[in-house]
Amino acid sequence: MNIQKFWILPCVVTAIFGAMFLVSGCEKAASPVSKLTRSNFDQIHDKMSKEEVRAILGSPSSTNTEDKLIYKRTTWRYVEGDKYINITFKNDELDSKDTNLGTQ
Predict the structure, then answer these.
(1) Which of 34, 48, 80, 88 has the greatest number of CB atoms lying within 10 Å of its CB?
(2) pLDDT of 72-81, one tens digit each?
(3) Which domains are present in the chain?
(4) In sequence order, what are the residues at sequence separation of 6 or more whose Cβ sits closer than 8 angstroms to the Cβ of residue 10?
């Protein structure tokens, strides 16, 4: 009788972990929605603030700021795989934009 009790516990534990493994494998992780779209790029226009651009595209992948003698130039680069958007600010207002979206 004691041997039967000894084997029941490991079988139950194995069954529980096996069921958890199978159920977790069935769920797909929700992939984040990309903000690097032509539609979002087209919403960006001259004289926008950094906050307005960030509200549309989110945080940039990288930034670079150069303090010139009479102005400050900041470049934000957004990258996802082969897609990119470059945003350039002059004194914290949008000065130019560039992308390869729609050309692939």
Answers:
(1) 48
(2) 999 999 999 9
(3) 38-99 (3.30.1450.10)
(4) none
